[in-house]
Amino acid sequence: xxxxxxxxxxxxxxxxxxxxxxxxxxxxxxxxxxxxxxxxxxxxxxxxxxxxxxxxxxxxxxxxxxxxxxxxxxxxxxxxxxxxxxxxxxxxxxxxxxxxxxxxxxxxxxxxxxxxxxxxxxxxxxxxxxxxxxxxxxxxxxxxxxxxxxxxxxxxxxxxxxxxxxxxxxxxxxxxxxxxxxxxxxxxxxxxxxxxxxxxxxxxxxxxxxxxxxxxxxxxxxxxxxxxxxxxxxxxxxxxxxxxxxxxxxxxxxxxxxxxxxxxxxxxxxxxxxxxxxxxxxxxxxxxxxxxxxxxxxxxxxxxxxxxxxxxxxxxxxxxxxxx
Length: 324
What we know:
alpha+beta; Phosphorylase Kinase, domain 1; 2 domains; five-stranded antiparallel beta sheet; 10 helices; 15% strand; globular
């Protein structure tokens, strides 16, 4: 979440006349994240989130995201629900951007990751995967393996302004990861479905030690289910220094497999999937580090934190190196 586009009081007031959510009492931007402009709305009817869609989100794909959240909620997953306007539509425009209001979820995301978060996180991820099974409309992963080389090329020599030699190191990593990627170059494919693809700690809310909700589905897509686990292993079980919390990883997988057991092929693929997840976030963070506009109310994220994760994964040869 972030704020790239300012919203005037007059524009917001006019926008809210299309909704039946009470009278506005407070409005503030949310600086966390890097993708869309997000605001907390407080009205006489409660709290809501207002999102203006920016940057990588294709407006034609928004009905897919909003529909997925509605589908998952119908299947018991606690995630934000699009709020329809008086005309029944959930998607409109504000400040020359596509915009939507969604419900506000109770709970807090963990500023300090604990091993105890692993098991309920794994369960929530598995439930998401199962709930998405009959959401049959596919959506390609716009930031999947086909996007990684073009992303690096778009950064070019500017990558070395972040760290000398970074461009070459990332290119060498891609030359190792892409030939081994499941489903590419004749490699065995793995089970696919709807994945969150961005389940970082700030997208998972907890209450009383359990997951109370999942948010920010705007990278969701149809892809390898175990890749979603790999993203979580990077985000929850590896520090910015590249230190691996094997206990947290075990608990995450135990929680996941208590709901959806993994095949041996999925477990064996976790090292390359984890390396792919690390380079994906290293590359997008690098791009944002170079291209974030001056003055944007956004917290830029350090790409080098994911370089250290990438180095850890490339040093492994099998799932045994993870202690799993």
